[in-house]
Structures are given as C-alpha cells and as structure tokens.
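User: Modeling request: complex.
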Amino acid sequence: MRLEARATTSGAATILWPAGAILATIVFSSVLVMIAGASPLTVFWLVFKGAAGSQFALLETLTRATPLIFTGLAVAVAFRARLWNIGAEAQLYLGAVMTVVLGTGAVTLPSAGLIPLIMMAAMLTGALTLLGPAILKTRFGVDEVVTTLLLNFIVLLFVSMLLEGPLKDPTGLGWPQSQRVIADAQLPRLIKGKRLHYGFVLAVVSAIVVWVIMKKTVLGYEMRAVGHNAEAARFAGIPVNLVIVKTALLSGGLAALAGFSEVAGLKGNLTLDLSPGYGYTGIVVAMLAMLNPLGVIAAAIFVAGIFVGADAMSRSANVPSYIAQVMVATSLLTMVAAIMLMRYRVRWR
Amino acid sequence: MDHAERPEAETVLRLAGITKRFGPLVANDAISLSLARGEVVALLGENGAGKTTLMNILFGHYTADEGQIEVFGKPLPPGDPNAALAAGIGMVHQHFTLADQMTVLENIVLGTRPLWSFNLGKAEARQKIRRLATDYGLDVDPDRMITELSVGERQRVEILKALYREARILILDEPTAVLTPMETEALFATLKKLVAAGLSVIFISHKLGEVQSVSDRVVVLRGGRLAGERRTSEATRRELAELMVGGQLPVNEIGPSTPGVTLFALKDVSTRSMGGAALRQVSIELRGGEITGLAGISGNGQAALAALIAGTLEAREGDIIVHGETARHWSPRTALDKGLGRIPEDRHATGMIGDMSVAENVISEAYRSPRFSRFGFLDWAAAASFAGDIIKAYDVKCPSPDARVRLLSGGNMQKLILGRALDGDPDIILASQPTRGLDVGAVAYVHARLIEARDRGAAVLIISEDLDEIQTLSDRIVVIHRGHLSSPSARGELSVMELGELMAGHGVAEGADHAA
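Assistant: Request completed. Predicted assembly structure:
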C-alpha cells in the first residue's frame, strides 16, 4: 500500500470524505452503543434531540461551544504556524484568574470600560503564558509540545493554590472558589433568562477577525509561510522567530478569552472545574476545522453538540455519557484520515 | 547445458511495450528495451522523459498498465519490489539509501538475513565483501561508518550492496552526478570489470559525454516515448543530443567579459560547518560584469558559502563587504536590502513554499514593500499581477498565479525563483546549483538569464557541482576544497583534470589562501 499525492482535490471530495468520516464515527459508536445494550437509532436520535431538539438544547450547545471556539482558534492559529500549542488549558485558566483579579471589585468602572479592560488584561495574561515556551523554542530549540503541555499542570496547581489562598472567597464556606465578579464586569446574557451570553458573539467575531488576519494581512501571510516551510521563509527574509513569537501571543490571547468568557459570561467565579478540558478539546476542534478559523465555529458547535446531547441522552437511555468522548475522539481520527485521503490517493501495491 | 550452443550475447532483460499512465499523463508509452549479457546500455533522456518511471516499474514500485518484463527468460511478476531483487537486479539510486550510523558491512548485510537469526554472519560477510571489492575495484573498508565516507565511497557501498545480493543486472541512476572527474573514471573502470565478469548494466544519464564513454548501446527516451536507439560507436554526440531534445540544441553565446569594480567581497570569513565542511578563512571578490564559478565536490563547503552569502549562516569571523562597505549585520533581509539576488541550492526545501501559491511565493522577498502591502494588509491583486508578469516574462508553465507551487515542474519552479531573485535587477547574484535537475531547455534558459545579468554589469557567483556548467559559464573559476578556496583561474586556464586535482585537494588548494 502506498500514498500518491493528488494533483487536485475535487469539490465533491472535499464534502464526501468528511461526510464519510462522520458516517464512520456513527458506525463505530453504534457498535459501542449496542454493547451498552441500547438501540443506536434511539441513542443518536436522543443525542441529536438533546443537542438541537429544542430552544433550550440549542442554546445550551452554543453556550458550551463558546469556550471551544476560543480554544479552537488558539490552536488553529498556532498550528498554522507549526507552533504546537498544547497549553490552551493553562492559558484559559490564567485568563480566568486575571478576570477574577480585576473583576471582583479591584477596579471599578462602568461596564463599557471595565469589560474591555478585563478582556485585554486576560488576553495579555494568556499571551504572556505562551511567550515563555515560544522564547524557549526560538532561542534554545526547546520543544514547545513538552513545555506547553507541562505548563498546564503547573498552572492548574498554581490556580489551586490561589483558590486555597489569596483568591479564596471568604464567604465560600471553605470551598476552593473565588469571589464572584461584580455586575459591571459580567458579560450580559444574549437572551434574558437563558445561559447563552455575549461571549458567544465575541467568539464568532474573534473567528472572523482571525480569518481576516490569516487571509489578508502580512502577519497571517508570514504565519502561513513559516508553518508551511520555515526554511524557505527564513531564506526569503521572513523573520521566522519573530513570527513564532507573534503567533504565540495571538494564540495565548485567544485561549485566555475562553477563560474570560466562561467566568465573566457564564460561571461568575473561578473554580478548579471551570474547564473540563476545553484547552485539549480545542485541539480536536481545530483539527476538525482543518485549521480554518471560520470552520472552527462549526467544529466547536459540532463537538459541543455531541457533549450536550450525550448528557441528555444518558439521562434517558441509560448509556454512559462517556460515549460522547468516544464519538468526539473517533470523529477526530476519522476526520484526520479523511483529510489525508483528500490529499492523497491510496494505491494498493 | 552445452556451452558451445549458447548465443554470444544472451538477452538477460527484456521490457516489452511498457506503458504507464498517471491520469492524463502518459509517463511511459509502449517502451521496449532489451539488455544483453555483458552489455552496458545507457538510458539517455531529460528529466521527465520517463527514465525513472521505467525503472520504478522494473523494480515493482509501480505497476505498468501494459507490457511485460522478462528477466533471464522468466516473466517478472509486476508490482513486487522483492521479485526484481530475487531475479538478480540491483539498483544504485541517485540518492543513496544507506543508514548513516551503521558500518559499511552492516549496511550491506541489512535485510539479507532472516529476522530471527541471532548473528549477522559478519566474518563470512566481511570476506565476501573484501573479495567483491578487490575483484571489481570497489575499495572500501567494511568496518567504517557510513558517515565517515566520501560520496564516491558511499556509491561503492551501494554497488557492493547490489553485488552482495548476487545482482547480475545493475542499474545506476545518474551515478556521476555527485562524483569528481577522478571518481567518475574509477566508476567507469569498475563498470568495465563488471561487464567483463558477465554482468549487465543500465546506466541512466543525461550527460552525453559519459554515455559515449561508458556504454555499448544508447536508448534515448523523450516525453515518455522511445525516441531512438543507437550503437554508441555509430552515433555522434550531436545526433544523440537532438534525439534527446527533439530538435536543435539551444546554444548560449557567451561573449568576453568586461569586469568592473568589486561589488561583493568576503574577507577571511570562517563559519561553522553546514551540510559538509565549514568555511575557513575564505576570501573572494566578485566583480561587476563577471561570472565567477565555484567548482568543488559536494560537501566541501559550498552549502556554507551559499548560506553565508544568502544570509542564513552567520560568519564567525571575517568581513562581508558589499559595494565597498563592510556589512555590520548580515541576514537574508539585509542581503535583500543591499540588492542581492539569490538562487538557493534546493528549490523545494529553501526556494519555494510548495503548499503556497505562485503569487504567495513570488512576493516572499518583497511582501513588506509598499508595492505589496499597506498598513499590514497585503495587496493580493498586486501580488497576482506580479506573479502574472513573472509567468509571462520567464515563460513559466502554470495554470494561474493561484496554482500551488508544488504542482509545478522543477524547471518552472526554478524560473519562478529566477524571476523573484532577478526582480529589480540586482547587481550581485548568487546562484547555487542553478540548473540541478533541469532539462536541457530549462538549463539553457537559466544560463541565458545569468549571462544577461552579467552583461548588464552584475557580479554573478555560480556554485555548481557540474563542472561542464562551471566551465561553460565562468569567466573565472575558483575551486573549493574542505572549506578552503583556491586562487581564481581565468577561463580556459586549467584543464578538466587540473580542476579535478584541485577539487580532490591536490596541488595548490590549501596554499592558495596565502596567495595574493
């Protein structure tokens, strides 16, 4: 068996292969569902209904998609320049930390000033979080996969320390949680009485901005050039190391927005379970989107839908909601295979 | 059984009507070829003529759409790489397939022993290798590491590897591309011994001189078809060239040079090593209106010199002097700002970004200028029109400025690089292996553009491992050996053999640093 590069990929292939990937995911998950003793059709219907079958379900899916759009964008931007940022989780948490540091009363401004200020500060925190690994990479050739990944654990322990110490809510009955952000620092809800908040709008706008950066600007061009062929980029006079540092700042800032929007828009305070791995799931989202910033929106909604739908399904069909993890993971693998098959033709012998 | 009845020249290999299509492209169109015992057949053709495809079919890497292969009278099952090896065909690739961190012996034995055997049978193998080496003049120490070997020695290991596996038919793909004139002579001597011992050789090349001196028969491919077949003794060089190109050979007229002032100079520059030797106390002056050719065996510091001038390798000591001024800081950016046009050695790795479009690639050196960007936003219309200009002016065959560069042929890619490098008429030009892997037409084109640049007063440095190219183009020749430069010699001053001596490090190379 060998792979031959395709000269061109037809329009149909760019739809059929990903569709095939989703089909393969469904088939594989069906087997597991049957092992769990339920009917796949019922289960998938319940997942779909739980994710998009009602206004409540749909809004819940979009709410869950919001942080995934941010982390997905962070990863897409970094991976495009071949900066393997596995540390969106850490950047998210530090963005959240900055949000509670400034948002719980330390600064008082009207919300039109306070929210942008906190947002900027959170982005800066996330950006600086990734700056360290980026400089280690460009100056000393230290593998950023290792540094960013390990930084996740360091940051989580650091946040845990903060929540047991300086940031601990004195009225929290001893729980490791921060104080709630003041009203002026909260992102308003999109629909009164529902959980969906303006963080989602911010996420969509961010995706569009990132798309414009990648497509239209000098920086985006430089990032793509460095990502596709750093040696050729360097030869052409593109400042490769500087581009990597800029990419890191952008990526870290985007990931931090996930933390900001979860705290200021949804949860109101910081706890250690703020993120159930949004930073890591962002990698899945970015890969499913083939690193396209606008695709990240769709991929994030898809992944969020599976999680939300599976939660609803497990309550009624008695199939563990872990099936969601399996489906997301399988869809990543099949999608990666589909992307490869779009670019290469398999020759048997 | 009866020796007397055996015909003088038994056919050992027969390809009959081999056709191979890749989509709309017919890479091999009904090609038939036979090889007799004790014969050297040269397979001559330009890049893209179908030589490599044909050999890949023979080796089972591709399956032919039509046609049969017979080896020693038995049909060869298609699509099975092991079948060719088992039938006694050995191949020496242009790019060696040796494990660097293993010894010669281990490389040769690799894959010949069953997986579950505990010893490699080293003593036995060593003896066999020694015997083959002395029989055929393939002198290599079986216990040395591949990394320690010269390119010529590595090639010998590849040949030994094939012989060790009892190959009776040897295929050599562009074997002389990496060799010095002396090493080439030695290789030819080995080939003579091999055919005298009854082996048969297919010699793939696009160099006419070699083909004439080594082969018994020449098979010429052009555009996937068999363009002709001649006894070497009966064919003229011109006839072969025209069969290969399919018409008149393009010839570049190069007039006498009118050297001007020194535009670029290196003074006692040393670097770290890069892809071979490091530069040691190198000095060179490039004058306007003159082509300086740098000859040398691959790995003697050419890569370091090219990278240094291009700005991607730092000088550890010494000065870079551009237009009479010593450059304080030197990087690709400063090189470009000072007006250097640079053609890198490796089009794919360094020259172009394969997954980006033609337009995106041609602006990669100038995208920050107001011509292509404003306020951090790129002007894609300007980029596309610039790409269109280069496509037109340099006769690049590509569907549109949006086409991915990966899909272009080497020649067209090189034209894009040329167009990008020569944009704005740079007066200092560095061309590293500018025609490697290009077909005759593209080679002539690249040469013509470089001569044109010289004639308008640019200082041109051509670094090439192709001695013919160096001799054709250069007004002055400098030889590099182990990071040292020889003193320049004028056009025609030294013979090929004298240059070969310098390339091998004999003679004045090392002492030349002290000369004026």
